[in-house]
Design a protein that fits this description.
single chain, mainly alpha, J domain-containing protein, J_dom_sf, DnaJ_domain
Length: 103
C-alpha cells in the first residue's frame, strides 16, 4: 500500500493547505518535462494520485480507515506518528475530551 502522506511529504494530520502547497511544490519539481530521469514520470503520477485522494475529504477518510489494515507496513515510529491522536485519546490524554476517571 502506498503511503500518500509520505509521497506528498506531509504529516498525517496535515491541513488541506499544507497538502495543496506540497502537491504544487512536488508536481513542479517532478514534472516529466523538467526532469529527464527514468522515474520522473512514475514519481509525478504517484504525486498526482496521492493528491487526488488526500485533497478529497471523503477519499481521505476512506484511505485513513483502510490504512489500518496496512499497519504491518509501518515501523513503530511511523505507527505512533500516524495514530497519535487515537493513542492519546484512548489513554485519556486527548485534547478536548473529558477524563473518564480520575486518580
Amino acid at each position: 500500500m502506498k503511503d500518500y502522506y509520505k509521497i506528498l511529504e506531509v504529516d498525517y494530520d496535515a491541513t488541506e493547505e499544507a497538502i495543496r502547497s506540497n502537491f504544487i511544490r512536488l508536481a513542479l519539481k517532478w514534472h516529466p518535462d523538467k526532469r529527464r530521469e527514468n522515474n520522473a514520470t512514475l514519481r509525478f503520477q504517484d504525486i498526482n494520485e496521492a493528491y487526488k485522494v488526500l485533497s478529497d475529504p471523503n477519499k481521505r477518510r476512506q484511505y485513513d480507515r483502510k490504512g489500518f489494515h496496512g499497519i504491518q507496513d509501518y515501523n513503530v515510529i511511523e505507527c505512533l506518528d500516524r495514530y497519535k491522536g487515537l493513542i492519546l485519546t484512548c489513554n485519556g490524554l486527548g485534547i478536548g475530551y473529558p477524563a473518564l476517571a480520575t486518580l
